[in-house]
Specification:
The protein is of the alpha/beta class. It has two domains: about 210 residues, inorganic pyrophosphatase (n-terminal core) (Alpha-Beta Complex), CATH 3.90.1640; about 60 residues, no CATH class. It has seven helices and 13 strands. A six-stranded parallel sheet has the order 3-2-1-8-9-10, with helices on one face. It has a three-stranded mixed sheet with strand order 6-5-13, with no helix packed on it.
Amino acid sequence: MNNTQNTLARIHEIINKGVSGAIVFANNPSVDAIAAATALYLGLTKMGKNVSLASSSKVQTDLTAGDKIQSNMVTGGDSLVISFPYSDGAIDKVDYNIQGKNFNLIITPRQGFAKLNADQVNYSYTGGMLDFVIVIDSPTLQNLGTVYSENQSQFQGRDIINVDRHLTNSFFGTVNFVNKTSSSVSEIILAVLQQLQIEIDKDIATNLYAGISAATNNFTSYSVNADTFEHIAALLRAGAIKKQFKKPLGANINENNDFGQRQPQNPQPILQQNKENQNIKPIESVEKETQVNNNLSPQDWLKPKIFRGSDLV
């Protein structure tokens, strides 16, 4: 076995023995990173794994499973989490009481703020344990932003699968699948899915096609080679749809070029066909990593006050 085969075999072993995991990707993700993460999520779900998708950035995209991306790591478990959009100072107090067999949580808005919209309330569970964490397109754990800084205990003692193509990757994983010459991280994820023997269906194929297309400026970048086109052919045979996707809100407007740098992209939607006169920028410098500032927090006086209902025993 060569090094790549050994790495893929180790990834296969970790995921097969695990039950639950999280797929996380860098703050301000590229279209390629979002496409790779969502495709992997779809694949692991087909395997019966309990997995979640998380990014520190608020990402809105019409890629399949894009609606599953959350701002925190969901680990399952027995503790119910009630979440909703929140602005600093919007809540005056949180109260609860018990009436008969009903537990009532009462959230009172601060004067001058709108009441909570019930349609925006989401429910999930926490308190469970992760068996593995898959980090996509992030040269360091710190580049994950608050997903890492606020959940460091979830990374400790876990198998971390590091999937990336940055020149500056710090090889922080238990397993590091870092291919610095790959055309895209979506192409690397395709190899992972094939190793796991997951059927590449239309949705997975379409996401991966979108990621490779966006990362390579419609297959014109220097890193595109014969293997890339063979992978594209396989995705098309699996049903990949060459359609125009909306530019994901919250995603980095620049995709990675051949060697982990940033290259300006045309502002039109990705996967536009028959585009003429594309200007390919030469490689000039390695991208500079931006450290995320996690020091911003609301003032204490803005935090909701918690009260207990008077009728509790």
